[in-house]
Amino acid sequence: MSSHIAQDAFDPWQEIVQHQQKSGFDSQFGATASFIGSMRDFNENADVSRMELEHYPAMTQRYLDKLERQAKERWNLLDTLIIHRVGEINPADPIVLIACWSAHRRAALD
After folding, report:
1. Closest Cα partner for 19 from 86, 105, 78?
2. Would you say 102 and 75 are in contact if contact means Cβ atoms under 8 Å apart?
3. How far apart are CA 25 and CA 105, in angstroms?
4. CA distances from 1 to 40, 60, 89, 97 (A)
5. How many C-beta neighbours within 10 Å does residue 80 have?
6. Would the CA dihedral through 75, 22, 17, 27 be positive or negative?
7. How many angstroms separate the CA atoms of 15 and 35, rounded?
8. Which residue from 106, 69, 97 is spatially nearest to 5, judged by alpha carbons?
9. Residue 71 and residue 81: Cα distance in Å, rounded?
10. Average pLDDT in the chain
11. What is the pTM of this model?
12. Of 20, 37, 73, 84, which has the fewest CB atoms closer than 10 Å, so is most exposed?
């Protein structure tokens, strides 16, 4: 399990591949499911050119860790990865990455 806060832009697909290669579960997982949340260039019909996402580091990390623990308790997951972006974010930038690996697709997708 791995969750962390990212100050800089990240490539979600590269993060998934790197995490999967380091996981040690290469021959055990049969499914990988992912969610990527990105910034839009509008909000309630107003144009948005950038945003500054602030956070309380310790509180944010505790919450990400809690989400991972709850997912692992609820579903039969081999591994998880959560990345949440903070700082200056531009339209189309990924903000959140959630990836789950499991032996069967149902657990990963649920």
Report:
1. 78
2. yes
3. 15
4. 29, 16, 26, 13
5. 21
6. negative
7. 12
8. 97
9. 11
10. 93
11. 0.90
12. 73
Which of 7, 5, 10, 33 is closest to 20 using CA atoms?
33
Q: Rounded CA gap, 42 and 40, in Å?
A: 6
CB atoms within 10 A of CB 55: 14
Q: Residue 6 burial by CB count (10 A; 0-12/13-18/19+): exposed, middle or buried?
A: middle
Q: Find where tokens 């930038």 sit.
A: 93
Tokens for 65? 């860790």
Q: Which amino acid appears at position 13 of this protein?
A: W
Find tokens 């991972």 and name the residue: 68
Answer for the pair 72, 1: CB distance below 8 angstroms, yes or no: yes
Structure tokens at 66: 């809690």
